Amino acid sequence: MSTAHPNPYSPSEATASVAAVSRGDSAAMQRLDWLFRRCPPHGPSQAIKSMLQRFREGQAHDAR
Amino acid sequence: MTPDELTELSRHMDLLPSMPAVRTELLLNLTQDDVSLATVSRLVAADQVIAAKVLRVANSPFFGLGCQVESLVQAVTLLGFSGLQSIALACLVMDSFKLHAQTDWFDQMAYWRHSIGTATCAQLLAERAGVNPASAFTAGLLHDLGQLVMVACYPQRCRAVLDHRRQSDGYALDSELRVFGFHHGEVGDLLGHKWNLPVPIRRGMALHHHTQDPRACTMVKLVHVADALAHALDLVGDPDELVPEVQASAWDDLNVDWSEANDLFAAIERRFHQVCASLVH
Fold first, then answer.
1. Which residue of B has its CA nearest to A51?
2. B23 to each of B15, B93, B122, B164, B244, how far by Cα in Å?
3. Is the dihedral of CA B12, B16, B22, B25 positive or negative?
4. Angstrom distance (rounded) from CA B271 to CA A54
5. Each residue of B15-54: pLDDT tens digit?
6. Pick the CATH number of B3-279 from 3.30.1780.10, 3.40.50.150, 1.10.3210.10, 2.30.110.10
7. Do A38 and B243 lie within an 8 Å CB cutoff?
8. Rounded to 5 degrees, what are φ and ψ at B246?
């Protein structure tokens, strides 16, 4: 694991972090940032990320 | 890949357990667009392991058929031809690639979950991009098969790839190039040639990280986006997960209407979990 990009998620926490993404909380949005860490901040990768943020927020809203 | 590397890899691949003739014929037929239902049914029926798995999947909650499927004829009627084609292909390839204990450090279940995730993304994207969904599922399922061949042929060097990837926090492709000098796409292409797979599926295996290549057809671009989407949706839950960059030209060429992206993502997640529950244990 790189020291430049420390992974805050241990293997045992991975499943929990995926569930957190579904709840749309701030840790979940950090996980999205983590997943896209090598992608440029423009273009199709960012389009996917933006759509996913809206999708997860929608899931969180429905869950409430 | 240099000619010497190609020769060495071919020699290693020749040492892998070969598929029985009936499976080779089934694989070939399952990956063709113009194969008849009668042919696939006959070939599936001839392989008891595959036939039993198809029936088990057909009876899983994924299909919600509401009745007991007891025969292949009934399964075909209920699942449709493309459903049978996709399930039989997944069962066949997964059953044919079992790694030995020396590679227990390699998470084969995570590998298959990513392959099924990419296949699911490709299938649902294909419906929106005017591409044959069954072929897209196949291309997605097989896209990383070169990785599995590399693990089977060169377990020690692949372990070094994994270590390098973790230390650099980078992409598997870059670590493969660093350790081997070639990557899983080239190996997949070789396997596709050996198995006589249709050209678009071979291209998907070979070029899904290289969509700028002049040989990159629509299927390559579809697999490229599907692969990124499977990583972005975090379907495997790998703590070291990393989304590959999506090339703008591939994205634009697919011309998918993303106005209903929420419905698409929800459908992908639902179908992925259902298929995994049936195929990956």
1. B261
2. 18, 9, 24, 36, 34
3. negative
4. 20
5. 666 667 777 788 788 777 777 888 888 888 888 888 888 8
6. 1.10.3210.10
7. yes
8. -95, 130
Chain A residue with the nearest C-alpha to that of B244: A39
State yes or no: ipTM above 0.90: no
Residue B4: pLDDT above 60? yes
Chain A and chain B share a number of CB contacts under 8 A equal to: 83
Ordered by start, the domain boundaries in chain B are: 3-279
pLDDT at residue A13, rounded to an integer? 47
CB contact under 8 A, B242 and A37: yes
Here the tokens at position B216 are 């990159």
A61 and B CB contact within 8 Å: no
Spans in chain A with pLDDT lower than 70: 1-25
Q: Do B167 and A7 touch (CB under 8 A)?
A: no
B27 touches chain A (CB under 8 A): no
pLDDT band at B171 (very low <50, low <70, confident <90, very high): very high
Binned at pLDDT 50, 70 and 90, residue B158 comes out as very high
Question: Residues 6 or more apart from A5 whose CB is under 8 A from it?
Answer: A37, B169
Distance from CA of A25 to the nearest CA of B (A): 16
* For range B187-203, the mean pLDDT: 88
Q: Do A2 and B169 touch (CB under 8 A)?
A: yes
- Cβ–Cβ under 8 Å, residues B245 and A40: yes
